[in-house]
Amino acid sequence: MSAATMSDAAVTASITPAPRSHSWVTPNPYLGTLGVFLGAAIVTLNGRLLSVTAPDLRAGFGLSVDEAAWITTSYNMALMFMGPFSAYVGGLLGTRRTLLFSGAIFTLVSLLLPFSPNLGVLLFLQVIGGLSSGTFYPLTLGYAFRSLPLGLAIYVIGAYSIDILGGLTLATPLAAWLTENLSWRWVFWTSAIITPLMMLCIYSAIPNPPPNPGPKPAASWRGFLYASLGLSLLYGALDQGQRFDWFHSGVITAMTATGAFLLGAAAIRRLAAPNPFFNLPFLFKRNTLIVGAALFSFRFVLLAVAVLIPAYLGAIQNYRQLEISPVMWWIILPQLVIGWISVQLMKRFDGRALLAVGFAVVAAACLMNAQLTSAWSSGNFWWSQLVMSAGLSLAFVGLVGGAVQQALESGALASPLKALTYSAFLHGIRLFGGEIGAAVIQRLIAVREQYHSNLLGLSVGSGDWLTDERLRLLTGGLLPGSSGAEEAQARAVVLLSGQIRQQAYTLAYIDGFLTIAWVSVGIIVLLALMKRMKIYFDSPPSETPS
Length: 546
Known about the structure:
This protein is mostly helical.
């Protein structure tokens, strides 16, 4: 027997859960799946709530803008840290132990966070919350596909897609309702209410794996630690880069250099002492890498909904969160119908086709949004959001379905070692890809706004008759509310400058939508290079997974 086979066998013996370990726990894969799906939704919803309610949290805790900027970053860095570890810990200890323990910690932290007396305590609790909730997401699909019949897998994919997309788009209207009707504290307490429901489902339906009588593989934690710390620091650098003006800041430079050094140390450690829980060569397959690229691109195009539209309505139209909420509801409701249609399509087509169609529809929605003007309000986004909802649902079902098809095709689900590697790979891309996309979009908007401001400023020069005429009209309109002609003219100059900046931002958001459309086109071209995959979802529900 080869060394690789012996290592894989040892991992199998150490992490493969038994169907039952407690006589008083009756395994119920359906209730267990509901539990792990709640966990994935909690992580998605909590992260978005923190981002959307940043001004409310800043006011609630009495923090400066610079201090409050680290609230979301500290949580997300902790999530990134758990990326490499989560699949390893879940496989080693079992889904039940991992989620019950981490769920209890996350619930307690969520209850205590609003009472943080200072910034240090607040950030410490945020890190603990991120480390504990970081285990929720990676264990979701792995448990569902190990526990449910293969014939039901496609319905799991559809439910999972609605679960994640719904949690992402629900955050804005929920945050608006909480802050308007209750308190900013409920941003944290919402998770404290939902997490015990997740724990109850897991406690009632998922048994512990039995003790392992056989030998356990000698897995080193040092490589995981180096990689996790390195990825966390790079994540933080990306998250804070725009605020610190990137490499003009010593903080960003130090975080980037240290993160890169730690990743290099992890690579050297892996070469010197390969870890039996992470099979890196397994990932170097064409379809696996393209699935990863598709996941990265999907996280990028989500920014059209999660960032660009709310940012436009807030910056240009001065909308409050409660006024932005209806636009987000337009995305949530059609997903139920489109998600079900996507599930039926996955029974006949492999993930490549559905994913390509989804990205094409998203590109079309972005091109519709690229027609915006500074006069657009929420009602102007109705049709484009409806198209976007269809595209996101098609793309995400195709993405998850394609990832599962590739897991079955490559043998990832047949080997615990490969399953842990595959899960950690996708989870890392999910977190890191989304942050890279957000950093790119923020930088793009800032740079393009400056570019358009300069161009518009050149065409609105002093002495130009159109400029003088507009200033004259503005001065005349402001004169009744001013102390004299001189003050009215000064106010007119300020107002004209604001109008120029408004137009510059509008053009920058148009560039953002066009960029996302081109990214969608690029991933469609890349999908054409994938090998055809077998369709596994047309079997009857009674079949069990192999």
